[in-house]
# Entry
Amino acid sequence: QKEVEQDPGPLSVPEGAIVSLNCTYSNSAFQYFMWYRQYSRKGPELLMYTYSSGNKEDGRFTAQVDKSSKYISLFIRDSQPSDSATYLCAMKGDTSGTYKYIFGTGTRLKVLA
Amino acid sequence: DGGITQSPKYLFRKEGQNVTLSCEQNLNHDAMYWYRQDPGQGLRLIYYSQIVNDFQKGDIAEGYSVSREKKESFPLTVTSAQKNPTAFYLCASSIRVGGSTDTQYFGPGTRLTVL
# Structure
């Protein structure tokens, strides 16, 4: 079993839809959770960075962490064609030496005009 | 503009050749990282460096080498010992390794193809 599971998609939605992207994980030591957006043939761009459980909002993006279920989500409101990209979740622990980020495989999102 | 630059954008290598990928950052970050990205797989860590003149192996270091002679630079050499080098290579940096300041920012990547 992978430490982080992410549906590869592709996920196709109409413009203006609310998008929900998700990751599940197995390691309860993870404390920091990130979402990156990666356009084709480009490097990942950090979108959201959260610590522990709860919600964090930034513009049209909301990151949600449920540590009891080992489940994280990224919601995109009023989705735009420019949101079409691959979204990577990443997470890491908080204990000394656990520097390593664990990445999901990415979900490819297509927002149709 | 502060950021991370990688060069070249595309690189072709013949079998048996060593090639070096460049990574430079002007963010004044102590930590730098190299990842490999393959279709259907998450990013995998090759090497990381916490400070100048120090680096550590990641999960897939075999066939790769690095150096960290300057804070700004962390070049990656893909040697002929790397059996399957065709991939997208990403360099990242963070203020330091570990804790809340370990927010990694990525460069634009280098796509390496073995002919």
User: Anything to note?
Assistant: The longest strand of chain B covers residues 44-51. The interface with chain A takes residues 4, 6, 40-43, 45, 48, 58-59, 88, 90, 97-100, 102-109, 111 of chain B (CB under 8 Å). The two ends of chain B are 35 Å apart (CA to CA). Chain B has a mean pLDDT of 92.
